[in-house]
Amino acid sequence: MGTEIEIYVGRTAVPDANYMGWQNCTDHVFYEADFFRRPRNSTHKVVRDVSDQYYIEPPETYRYFLAPAEVVRKRLMIQGYTPEFCAHSWEVSRLHQVETYQKFARGEDSQISADLALMASTSLSDWLELVRRQEKASPDKVITGRHQPWHIMSLLGAPNDVLVQLALLSDAFPSSQVWMDCSFLYDDDDDPRTPHQIAEEGAAEFADFPEGKIIVLTEGKSDTRIITAALKAFYPEYADAYQFIDFEEFRIEGGASVLARMVKILSGARIQNRLLALFDNDAAGAEAIQSLSRIRFPRNVRLMMLPNTKLARSYPTLGPSGRLRMDVNGSAAPIELFLGRSSLITPEGTLRPIRWSQWKDNVERYQGVVDDKDAICSAFLASLEAGSSPSTLRRSFPEMNLLLQSIFRAFEDNTPPLI
Fold first, then answer.
1. Cys-Cys with 10: which of 97, 109, 176, 391 at CB 3.0–4.6 Å?
2. Are residues 354 and 253 in the same domain?
3. What are 244-284's pLDDT values in tens digits?
4. Which are the contacts of 101, defined by CB distance < 8 A and separation ≥ 6?
5. The whole model's pTM is what?
6. In this structure, is residue 398 part of a structural domain?
7. Full residue range of the structural domain in which residue 48 is found
8. What is the distance between the alpha carbons of residues 315 and 354, in angstroms, rounded to a whole number?
C-alpha cells in the first residue's frame, strides 16, 4: 500500500482518512492493544485480502491496527460522536450536497438529475442500508466505483469530519473490523516500536515548541484585568498571542498559593500550550515559587515573578518603625506598583504606602500590601481609556512597559526544532 493513511471498515475505505494524519489515529481511533505485527500467513484475513493487491510483492510481515467496529464506535461515542450528532452532520451534508450540485443538472434525463432526485429523498437509514447492500453484492472486492460510499454523490464523503465518516461506516457494519495498514511507518523490518511509540517520540521532539497562544496565569482577576488591558493598549499588535484565565466568569479564587496549585495541575495534565505563571513580586509570590522549586516542569511552562523596578527600590512603607522608604522588591511589589506614579499618588500628592502585614517564615521576610488597591487600578484603567497612543503610554508607565517586555521575553529561548 502507499504512504497515505487508509482506514477501512471491513472492505470499505473511510473516504477522507488521509486528511486526518496517522498520529491522530493513535489518539482517537486505535489504542496500543490494537496493534498487530504478524507474518503474512497469520495476518487477519480482511487485512491480507485488501492489502495484498496494493503490493507488487506482498510483505512477509504485516504491521497494522485492527479493532472491532463496535469498540471503535464506542470510543467515538466517548469523544462526543453520538448517533444524534452524526445523523445531524449527515443530514446537513445531504442538504448541502443537493444545493451545491443542482447547478450541474442539465435536464430531467441527466445522470446528475437522477442522482440528485435520489439524494433529495434518501434518509440516513435508507442510505445505511444501501451501503450494506453494496458491500454484500461485492463479497470478493474492495468497494470501488462511481456509486460506492465515497463517491461525491454518495453522501459519505460529504461530512467534513473524518470521524463522522468512520462512525457512520461503523454503524453500517457493526460486526466488521476497523483496521489500518501501518507498514508505511517502517523502513526497518526489525524496528520493534509500535505506532504509538513512534508518535510519542515524534511528539517529544516537538514538545519544546508547542503551538497555540501563550496562556498567562496570574494570581487573580485584578492582575488579569490589568495586564490584559495594558497589553491591548501598549502593544495591540501582540495582544492576540496571549490568553488569560477567566477568574470572574468561572469564579476562580485567587492568590499566590492558588496559582502554584494551578500551574502544577495544568502541567500534570500535559497542556500543550505554553504556560506562563506570573507571581507578584512580594513575599507571598516568592514563597509560592519556592514551593515549586523541586518540581521539574516541562519546557513549555515558565514561572516568573513581576520584575524588580526602580520605583520599588525606594518606596514609602508603614510598619512598627513608622514611615520609612525601603526597597520593597521581593517583599511588597504587587501589580499595583506597576501602574505608574500617577495612579499611586493620593489626593494629597503622596505615594500610597505599603503596609507590612505578616511574616513569611519560608522566605524570611514580611509581606506588604499597598493601600487603596481599587483606587490605584481605577486610575490606571482610566488613563488607558483616555485615548493616548501606545508609544505615549509606554513612556508614561515605564514599570508596566517593563512588565510587558518581561512577558514577551519569557519564551524567547523556546526556539523550534530544526526540520
1. 176
2. yes
3. 988 777 677 888 999 999 999 988 877 878 899 999 999 99
4. 112, 115, 116, 119, 152, 153
5. 0.63
6. yes
7. 7-202
8. 8
